[in-house]
Design goal:
With about 500 residues, the chain is α/β, with parallel strands linked by helices. About 50% of the residues lie in helices and about 10% in strands.
């Protein structure tokens, strides 16, 4: 070892007591007079050579409310000390590069200042944790910091893979981690808390997920292991499944499909999903969402094979679009209510259209798909026009417009005029639906279903009499219709 090293030496204190500090590090510790610790709250500290003067940055945790600010202050302090002294030793818990934010920042800053650095290897918390769990980490385990989970709204890892969450250092953090995990995992999902891995006090506690923040053993040396969900629960696995269908040893039918041949299936699955939503049946909705996802992933797989785009491009594209169109959420734009949101949305989309520099249509309505069902297309056209101010100020002119269009139907002179005026009536009625903040497609589908139910009731009642529908007058059939309405059909 070069005991004349000039610069910053960064060492790891290991996961537990001083007995786990490496021999290389202990030799160096016996040669120095001062050491700077990120935190003195570590079991190895009491085993350091007695002649060393210990300096701790624990006071910074009291001065700053955010860890990022603490780590930034530590980096600055170490760099300043290194400028004043020829040699400085900085120590962190565990390994200098495992779950440790300060080491990379210090090395980067030192390089900018022309200060030499070196890092001594150390045992991290991972090795004794895997020993305590009797687990081989090469089962594609995910490693993630508790603070990253706690600050998220949704877990950002495949749920079908095991995950180890480090630095669950308080019951409050455990509660926040639990809330995020429960967006994917059931309340009773099995997990393990690992305390003080590598020390004689090491303890592994198995429990359901909902109990973790009730555990009184949680401390600065606590980690959380989460068992995976069953195979087939991650998007990555589903993409592999679809890729297999398209592979040479896959399905002949799937291999033959392309974007155009799948158009009718995409449309069909979309309508089936809408029908499930109308039924308000969660189980059926779940099934139809899966069928719709199949179409999306299949198109992405086909595109990938042709070099057009990949699933990652699809996800990145919509991710960036959502962030871009929600500056009131992801940037510093103030809005007052939904109206402001929609106005900003349309302005942002207008800028996007300008960037695309479309040769044909490049207006407000250019993004409304012409393949939309007519009612949905009509409502979207009206909504987009309204966002830029092309709309009445009150509901009364909407009613007047409907009456005007009905009168024009009555006075139509020929078949062509009649078709146009009937279309205008429908368009005006859709506007009325929009003004009442309803969805035209939905309310009409619901009306269709009500008619189906009531007509089926009439047919059933008529069959009970042994007669045919034609044997009844409209007035008699209307009585059955009224009965169906009273029954809530």
């Amino acid at each position: 070892m070069n005991d004349q090293f000039k610069g910053i030496t960064i060492i790891g204190l290991g996961p537990a007591g001083a007995e786990l500090i490496t021999n290389q590090t202990m030799v160096w510790l016996n040669q120095i007079d001062d050491i700077y610790l990120r935190t003195a709250q570590h079991p190895a500290v009491k085993g350091l050579p007695q002649k060393i003067k210990i300096h701790s940055f624990d006071y910074l945790y009291q001065e700053y409310s955010e860890f990022e600010d603490v780590y930034r202050a530590i980096k600055t302090e170490i760099i300043e000390i290194a400028k004043k002294k020829s040699s400085v030793t900085y120590a962190v818990p565990g390994h200098p590069f495992v779950a440790e934010s300060t080491t990379p920042e210090i090395i980067r800053a030192a390089k900018e200042e022309g200060i030499q650095t070196r890092v001594f290897e150390a045992l991290s918390f991972l090795e004794p944790t895997f020993t305590a769990l009797s687990l081989d980490p090469f089962q594609s385990i995910t490693l993630i910091d508790a603070l990253d989970i706690a600050s998220a709204n949704f877990p950002q890892f495949p749920p079908s893979r095991p995950v180890l969450i480090s630095q669950v250092y308080s019951r409050m953090i455990a509660a926040e981690v639990k809330q995020t995990l429960m967006e994917v995992f059931p309340d009773e999902h099995p997990v393990k808390l690992i305390h003080a891995a590598g020390s004689p006090q090491c303890q592994v506690e198995s429990m359901p997920l909902y109990e973790i923040d009730r555990n009184r053993n949680i401390g600065v040396l606590t980690s959380l292991y989460v068992d995976p969900l069953p195979a087939g629960t991650s998007l990555e696995e589903f993409q592999e499944l679809i890729a297999h269908l398209r592979a040479p040893d896959g399905c002949p039918w799937d291999r033959e499909q392309d974007h155009q041949s799948l158009r009718k299936h995409l449309l069909s699955e979309t309508y089936e999903a809408l029908a499930a939503l109308d039924e308000d049946d969660p189980e059926h909705i779940c099934e139809e969402m899966g069928d719709l996802l199949l179409q999306i992933v299949l198109h992405a797989q086909i595109a990938s094979e042709y070099g057009e785009f990949r699933m990652t491009d699809v996800i990145k594209g919509i991710h960036d679009k959502i962030v871009r169109r929600h500056p009131h959420v992801f940037a510093h734009v103030n809005v007052e209510g939904v109206k402001d949101v929609l106005t900003n949305w349309e302005k942002i989309k207008e800028k996007e259209r300008e960037k695309k520099a479309e040769k044909d249509e490049n207006g407000i309505l250019s993004g409304v798909p012409k393949d939309y069902p007519a009612l949905a297309q009509s409502q979207e056209i009206q909504a987009r026009a309204a966002r830029v101010g092309f709309d009445w100020d009150s509901l009364n002119p909407v009613w007047l417009k409907i009456n005007e269009e009905l009168e024009e139907v009555r006075t139509a002179q020929n078949s062509d005029d009649l078709s146009k005026e009937l279309g205008d009536v429908l368009f005006a009625v859709v506007n009325l639906v929009r003004w009442h903040e309803k969805d035209a497609e939905t309310v009409l589908r619901e009306a269709n279903q009500r008619f189906r139910n009531r007509f089926n009731y009439i047919e059933t009642e008529v069959k009970k009499t042994g007669k045919e529908m034609q044997d009844y007058s409209l007035e008699e059939l209307d009585k059955y219709w009224d009965q169906a309405k009273k029954l809530g059909m």
